[in-house]
Description:
With about 160 residues, the chain is mostly helical. Helices cover about 75% and strands about 0% of the residues. It has helices spanning about 15-35, 45-70, 75-110, 120-155. Helix 1 (about 15-35) runs antiparallel to helix 2 and helix 3 (about 75-110) packs antiparallel against helix 4. It starts with 12 loop residues before the first helix and ends in a 5-residue tail after the last helix.
Amino acid sequence: MTASPRPRLRFSLSQLIRLVIYCAVILGCLVPMIRPGGYGRGWDQVIFLVTLEAIALPLALTACTIALVRPGPGRSIAVTSLLLCSTAAVLAYALFASWSLIEPQLAAMRSPLKVPPNLIARSIVVLLDPAIGAAFVLLASRLARLLRAGRSASPVRD
């Protein structure tokens, strides 16, 4: 009997259990996408559901990673990457919402003596964008630092 030229994947029982848990979380997060109900009509529904999935799925996987993976550099990189994905989705949606709120306001300001409605609420939404952007930049710099530290500690040379 000769050894096969291809290496086979062999998973331990704990790895298979983790895989089943991750798949269950992913499928549980995708249920609103499969059966949408009461989220609006047309493109508003699509944008809301895609944004919800883009934010909720990485956060759910982050919680699973924190609970299931041993502490170490790999876990730190995975958690930071997942949080960065979720923050990028929040930032994209916040910028989209800000533009959709600012654009009618700018059109209303062109006509004289008209004050746009909900000026304070719209200003608060616009002021949140830099805070979300700062969180994104901090997470990206942390991920770059973790990847650089992992690369220097790796025994394999480039």
